[in-house]
Structures are given as structure tokens and as C-alpha cells.
Amino acid sequence: MTAPRRFPPDFLWGAATAAYQIEGSVTADGRGPSIWDTFSRTPGAVLNGDTGDTGTDHYHRLDEDVALMADLGLRAYRFSVAWPRVQPTGRGPAEQRGLDLYRRLTDRLLDRGIAPVVTLYHWDLPQPLEDAGGWPERDTAWRFADYAGLVADALGDRVHLWTTLNEPWCSAYLGYSSGEHAPGVQDPARALAAVHTLNLAHGLGARAVRAAAGDDAPVSITLNLEVNRAATDDPADVAAKDRLDRVANEVFLGPLLDGAYPDGVVEETAHLTDWSFVRDGDLDLVHTRLDALGVNYYTTSLVRAATGPATAPAHGRASAEQRPPADVATGVEWLPQAGPHTAMDWLVDPAGFTELLVSLHRRRPDLPLYVLENGAAYPDVVTPDGRVHDAERVAYLHAHVEALGAAMDAGADVRGYMAWSLMDNFEWAFGYERRFGLVHVDYPTMTRTVKDSGHWYRRLATTGELPAVDAVDVDAAEVDAVEVDAAAPAR
């Protein structure tokens, strides 16, 4: 019998959320509007017309949610700070009532022995900054640095790991080219300008964090790097895959790790822009010390050369969220892949997870990695026994944690893993319909119910040993206690 896989005793097991997805209370304590407040009110932009106005009411249930994290045995919690809570217009002095929310959250986490992992930007740009040009406007990078300094000054050295930006790929390409995310712009030239401003924002923001919290403050950025595979060994298919890698991955990794944009990307996007938004000295600002790299992983893509415009498989809207828009990734055809798919219509491919982590390690052996998102959406229901039996999610997590272990066996220096997500929440353009959580949320009552996957993950987090895929049994009294604590209103 094979012994269960064990992870190092100091490995950081946690879960992740984002402010707009869970907080609610979007006008409380001086919070200003974000681009998602505006976008979600645009007819047809979000499934069922949902908004983040209520989220999961985390704003009022913070203490109980932290108690729930402790019950799940989490050693870390990745949360994001809402920029418009701290600077309602994106400029000027801090709104102290907004900062107090995150001071209190940080204190509660530390009281419970849970390490705070803080994301400074998870897509909620203050609307006034969008009105002034948004991420394509380079001044936004300096506004971000000012904001980052305010947050770092408030939270100081109590943060285990800072991450400047979450998935700038989404902010640029889905926000400004496909228009599927806020602010809903469809202009690929502006999307590429946004890529550069976001890179600048990381570099400036990292410096601002260290200036406020100390030079030892550990700073990362979190990327949703694509794992693209060529359909055949034909040079044309391989070239298509390489073009896709450059515009999807290397426009971020190149400046961050090497201080340069990848060879070829300027020529390959010359039909859209001349890249004059890159000025002398910019890349020196971007290429600052990186203490760790945050990695988000969900799926892979299979591509080949296309003779016409870029095309995607007919898997529906969800698949589009895993590819750059056609005008940016030219001459690429995405192919359907056989195998199990999640409710997001993403292929379940844990081998791609190992491949990504090992490739990053080989590129930069000295750079620690943190998995800051990994998880799956499936249809979930609370059964008459009061449980959520999400066997597919348990199987997904088991396979991907095993794949993580395989990457570590191959030498990858991975320090932590955050399941996406702690609880069901507002899933961006899919509203409240898609559920990723370890904890089920009944939106009419906001009752929290730990799913089987949450019980399974508790065993992983508390023992450091990969549980069997069917290791989800839990005493019913324990379930009831967790539900009551998590559902109680904040005091």
C-alpha cells in the first residue's frame, strides 16, 4: 500500500477571496464606486443582472467568517483590499473607516494563527480613475502606487505576503479588448496599453509597499499564466502556440523577470499599436525585486495555426475567459479537448498544473512560488441531510494537490496553496450562478454550510497529508456547529 503524500510542515494551506465578490455594503463608510459597480449595472453585462451589492455580506460577517476559516484549519487567508474603500475617488488621503475594515480583518486572522496574504488590486478600479482613462492611461500606475503605500502603511509588517495585482491578463484583455469584464471596453490597442500600465503599477506599487512597510516586506504579483499546447508538431502549429504564449504570458513575465518585452510581440501586434506607450526607463521601474510569484491555475488550451481570424471552440462564453481576444492573438485556432469539464466549461487537466509549476521553477530556480488560486465550479445543492456532497470538487482538489506534489518532487519551490474559493460568491460576469466555494452560501439567508470539499480540505490543511478522495466523513454535530457560528450576524 502506497503511503499518503505528505507536504512540508511549514507549507501554507489556505483559501482565497476578493473584496467585490464577498464584501457587499458597497456604499458603507465612504466607499466610492468601482468599475464593477458600474459594469454590473449595464444591461446584459452580468448573468441574471446580478451585482456585488450584497456579495456574501462579509462586511458584516467578518468575525464569523474568520471563525469559519479557523474551523477549517486554514493557515493562511488571501483577501483583497477594495481600492475604492481606501480612496473613494482613487486619489487623495485614505478613508480611515475603509482601512479600519482591513486592520480589523488582519488582527482577527493573526489572533487565530492565520497568515494574511493581501492582494492590493483584484479588479475594482475606482470609477473616477476609469473616467480619467483607466488602465490604458499611464498615470493610473502612479495612482496605484499612492494607494499601495496607504494600505502598506496601515497594515505594516503584519502581512505574510503582499501581492500587487491579481491576474493583470484579465484586467487588460477582458476589460479592454473583449469587454467581458469591467469596464467593458472593446479596443485591443487600449488593452495592450493597459498591459504596460499594469506592469508599471506592479513595479511602482512594490516600491511603495516596501517604502511604507519596510524593505523586508515580501512582495509578489499573481498571474494566471496560460498552459498552451500545440495540436501537432507542425511548425505552423508550434509557431501559433508560441505567438499565443508571447501575448498571453511573456508580456508579463518578460518585463517582470527579464526587464524586457519578448522578441516578436511588437511586430505581431503592429496592426494594433506601435507600443509608443513604453517610455525610456519604464522597464527599469517594472523590473524590481520579486520575492515570490503568485500562480493561479485552472485549465489548459490546445491550439493550432488558423488561416483566418483567431477562433475558439464552441464551448460557450466561459471558454473565452481563458484566451486572449482574437484581435490580439492572431492566427490561432483553439481546439476542443476531450475529458471532464467544470461548470465553467474548463477542461480538468491537473498535468498542466505540474507542467506550469515545473517550467516556472526551471526558468527561475531562486523564485519561490505560491499557488494563490486553484479550484473548480460545479452545481451544488444542500441535500436534506444538511450537507453539500460535491464529490466532483473533492476529486478536482485531490488531483490538483497531487499534481502540486509532483511539481515539488521535481524541484519546484512552492511555499503555499490557496483554494479558490473560501466560499461561494459573486463570480464576475456569471453573477451568483457559478459556485467555487469550499463553503456553500445560501444567498437569501447568507447561511454558510461547509461542503464535503471543505471537510476534506480541513483534513489536508490540519495534517499536511493528502487525504483519500473519499475522506469526507464528518460528525453531523460538527457540521451543525460550523453552520450556526458562520451564519450568526456580526456583533
Mean pLDDT rating: 93
Helix percent band: 25-40%
Q: Which value, in Å, is the CA radius of gyration?
A: 21 Å
Q: Describe the global form.
A: globular
What is the helix tally? 17
Q: Give the strand order, joined by hyphens, for the main sheet.
A: 1-2-3-4-5-7-10-11
End-to-end CA span = 50 Å
Strand content: 5-15%
Order of helices and strands: EHHHEHHEHHEHHEEHHHEEHEHEHEEEHH
Runs in which pLDDT lies below 50 for 5 or more consecutive residues are: 314-318, 476-491
Task: Give a short overview.
With 491 residues, this protein is of the alpha/beta class.
Keywords:
about 500 residues, alpha/beta, eight-stranded parallel beta barrel, three-stranded mixed sheet, about 40% helix, globular
What does this structure look like?
- The protein is of the alpha/beta class and 491 residues long.
- It has 17 helices and 13 strands.
- An eight-stranded parallel beta barrel has the order 1-2-3-4-5-7-10-11, surrounded by four helices.
- Strand 10, helix 15 and strand 11 form a beta-alpha-beta unit.
- The chain is globular and about 60 Å long.
- The C terminus is likely disordered.
Present the secondary structure layout:
Elements: E1 12-16, H1 19-22, H2 35-39, H3 58-71, E2 76-80, H4 83-86, H5 96-111, E3 115-121, H6 127-131, H7 139-155, E4 161-166, H8 168-176, H9 188-213, E5 219-223, E6 228-230, H10 235-258, H11 265-268, H12 282-286, E7 292-296, E8 301-305, H13 317-320, E9 332-335, H14 350-363, E10 369-373, H15 391-409, E11 414-420, E12 439-442, E13 447-450, H16 452-463, H17 476-487
Parallel strand pairs: 1-2, 1-11, 2-3, 3-4, 4-5, 5-7, 6-8, 7-10, 10-11
Antiparallel strand pairs: 8-9, 12-13
Helix pairs in contact: 3-5, 3-17, 7-9, 8-9, 9-10, 14-15, 15-16
